[in-house]
Structure formats: C-alpha cells, structure tokens
Specification:
This protein has 382 residues and is of the alpha/beta class. The chain has twelve helices and 21 strands. It is globular and about 60 Å long.
Length: 382
C-alpha cells in the first residue's frame, strides 16, 4: 500500500515477532516475523493518574482548554496514548471550572480528543488528618454528595470516570455504591480506614486502591491495618507509583506478589514538575518545591514528597531493574490492566490507531530505552 510504513518488534504478550504496517494513522495489517534481535513492540501507555507534566498543571491557577491540550501533547511525546486528567481537592466552583476546561479540550482539540479517556477526581471526600491527607488542602475537604457529583458531571458532560474517596467517612459507602452503579470507577485512597471500612467499600463496588502504600498515616498498627486489608481484598486492584521514592523496592515487590500482575496498575501521579530540570520552584500546592537530580519532588527543607517527578514512560523503563520482574509484566500493568478499567482495548491489530512504542532492553542494567514513539502513525520523538 502506498505510503505504508512497516515496524517490526517483539510482542511482549505472545513472545512472537510481529511486523505491523501503518498508513493514514492506522494499523492496516500485521504479520509474523523472526523475533530475534527486535525491539519490544508495546501499545501506547495508559495513565489513570496525571496531575500535570513538564510545566503543565491541571490544579493550579485558571485552567483552560488550551492548557489541557498542551499537557496532552506533552504526554503523547512520552508514550502516553490515553490518560485520566486528575483533579485534586478544591472548592466546588474551582473543580467545575476545571472540569469544563477539560471537557472543552476533549470537544474541540485534537490531542485531548484522542487521549483523554475520562477524568479522575481525587477527593474532596478524603481524610482530613495529617498524613492520609497528603498535600490536599484541608480547608476544602468535605463529605461526599451525590448532588455535587451530578454537578461535576454536568460541567464535564459526563466525563468523570473515576473518583478516589476515603471509605471511612460518614455516608461514603452509600455514595460510592451509587456512583459505582453509574459506571464510575471507585478508588480508595488518602484514607485512615479500618479493615471493616475496606471490606464494606469493596462490597459496595470499590474496584481500586489509589497509589497503595501512600496517602496514609506515617505509622500504622502492626496489624490489622488498611494496607494489609487492601492487599488481601481480591476485589481491589492496586495502582502503584514506582518512581523509586513513593515506595521502597522491597515494598513494591511484596505488593505486586500479593496482588498478582493482573491486579496492579502502574501510574505516574505526575505533577507539573515532572520532566523539569533539577532546582527550586514555587507551587500553589505545597509552596517551595525542590526537584532533585534523581527526579524526587519534595517540599523544600522537608522529607515530604510533593508529587511524582516521573512520567509513566520513566516508570516502565526502570520497571525490571526496580522490581526484578520481566519487562512484559510492566507493560501489562501500564497498558492492558488500566485499559480494562476503561473498558477499552489497547491491542495492536488491523483497524486500530497506530499508537505504540519500540523499546530496546538492556540486559545488563534491566532497563528499557525508548527507540521510537509512534502516535497516530507518526514518530513524536524530537
């Protein structure tokens, strides 16, 4: 076919070599080939938790459709094919304005139309205690309200797809049961919940633990506690931030073993400082921020993290060296598993968009280097 480009790679799911033929932004055909010596051929990544990236911020100042579009374009250049813009605790009026801006970007602008698979609202019904609350502004934490949820959906034209909530709050279980029946993904996070709270939430339809191991008190009872309960509850998958700072290596390894590869979702939880040069910055959330050379984002002069300083591509690239697991497991956790929550397929097959990544594996270091990123059939690596 005229204008067709061919890309060959090793399929991480089947172990076979594949050549896919791309034209007009779509996969036209594919065929088997010899796998030896080929790069890994991965679907584009799916990130369920993005607060910002490379200077683009969803939660600070006045959000516009153009700002959302700039974030979408920046993310596609680091291998993200779909994502959930994530809004944290704020006044209802501010949340609705941000929801409207995201909706407008989806309706009118090309990258956002293709990439935004819904919106994740993290809060405002979370624990008000120091520790579990994290960096969320205490003054805007409030009880769950179906009426407010409906106003969110009105502002977003129904794009709210996921809500993170603390299940111990008064009325939370009834609330999450109702929004789950409306097709919204219910995630548990920023919580001081008991075992009983966790199990009641799962009974009511909760499906996910938001950044398990973070958004908790600094110290917990030996047992029982909310971490053990969420690890033991098979109805809950777990999202993990494997940036080398949010979880120690040993903790991440044990969590993955407990949940199983099919019940773990890798997220970036990136903030606007991710992808920026090391240095000191000012943020409307957290104040004075330090970005270290190891991509740690923290509140200056403290040990407290102020979000993640990596992209999901960074997480995937370091996955095997960090966990000791096969690279294919990391690809599963960053593509197929989040796709399942969004009721979408990320399989690279004829008739689908040509959004994929070619990785070169370094057996000595256990890392993966990006050879090329294809978005809509074109390379986006500069």
């Amino acid at each position: 076919m005229r204008g067709t480009k061919a890309y060959s790679g090793f399929d991480p799911f089947t172990g076979e070599g594949r050549t896919i033929n791309v034209s007009a932004g779509m996969i036209q055909s594919d065929e088997r080939c010899v796998a030896e010596g080929l790069p890994v051929l991965s679907p584009g990544l799916i990130d369920l938790q993005v607060n910002g990236y490379n200077g683009h911020d969803l939660n600070g100042g006045e959000l516009t459709a153009d700002k959302v579009e700039a974030l979408s374009e920046a993310l596609c250049r680091v291998g993200v094919a779909a994502y959930l813009p994530t809004l944290i605790t704020a006044e209802e009026a501010d949340l609705c304005l941000r929801l409207y801006a995201i909706q407008e970007a989806v309706e009118t602008l090309p990258y956002s139309r293709q990439m935004i698979a819904g919106i994740h609202i993290e809060g405002p019904s979370i624990s008000s205690k120091d520790g579990p609350r994290g960096a969320h502004p205490k003054e805007h934490i409030r009880s769950p309200s179906i009426e407010e949820f409906e106003r969110w959906q009105e502002a977003a034209s129904g794009l709210v797809a996921m809500i993170t909530i603390a299940p111990e709050l008064h009325g939370a279980v009834d609330y999450l049961r109702e929004i789950a029946t409306r097709g919204v993904i219910v995630a548990l996070g920023h919580s001081d919940a008991s075992e009983e709270d966790i199990y009641k939430a799962a009974d009511a339809g909760a499906q996910l633990s938001t950044h398990l191991g973070n958004g908790l008190a600094g110290t917990l009872p030996r047992h029982p506690n909310a971490v053990w309960a969420q690890l033991a509850e098979d109805r809950l998958s777990a999202s993990l931030i494997l940036d080398g700072h949010h979880l120690p290596k040993s903790t991440a390894q044990v969590m993955i073993r407990a949940k199983g590869i099919e019940r773990v979702v890798l997220v970036s939880d990136s903030v606007k400082f991710a992808g920026m040069e090391p240095g000191r910055y000012t943020s409307s959330i957290g104040g004075d921020i330090k970005v270290s050379s190891d991509r740690r984002v923290s509140i200056s002069g403290t040990q407290f993290l102020a979000g993640s300083g990596v992209s999901l591509l960074d997480v995937v690239g370091d996955f095997s060296s960090f966990t000791g697991l096969p690279f294919s497991a990391g690809i599963t956790m960053a593509t197929r598993n989040p796709a399942r929550f969004l009721n979408r397929s990320c399989d690279l097959k004829p008739g689908t968009r040509a959004d994929f990544i070619l990785f070169d594996l370094d057996d000595d270091t256990g890392t993966a280097q990006t050879r090329d990123i294809i978005f809509g059939g074109e390379s986006v690596i500069r």
